[in-house]
């Protein structure tokens, strides 16, 4: 692989990692909100 191809692959990996991190944070916030809503309702 050329250095340019390696840079492109690393950029794609980084962007995928950022998206997965954001999705994970969103999921955690969603679960937290549902838990708080259930506790407040009972």
Q: Count of DSSP helices?
A: 1
> Beta-strand percentage?
under 5%
Q: What is the molecular shape? A: rod-shaped
Radius of gyration: 18 Å
Number of strands: 0
Instruction: Report the mean per-residue pLDDT as an integer.
Output: 95
Indicate the structural class. Answer: mainly alpha
The low-pLDDT segments are none
Helix content: over 70%
SSE topology string? H
* Major β-sheet profile: none
How far is it from the N-terminal to the C-terminal residue, by CA?
59 Å
Which structural traits does this protein have?
rod-shaped; mainly alpha; 1 helix; 42 residues
Describe the structure.
By secondary structure, this protein is an all-alpha fold. It has a domain at 18-42. Helix content is 93%, strand content 0%. The chain has one helix and no strands. The N and C termini lie far apart (59 Å).
């Amino acid at each position: 692989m050329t250095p340019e191809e390696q840079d492109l692959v690393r950029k794609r990996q980084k962007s995928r990692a950022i998206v997965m991190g954001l999705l994970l944070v969103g999921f955690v916030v969603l679960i937290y909100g549902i838990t708080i809503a259930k506790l407040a309702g009972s």
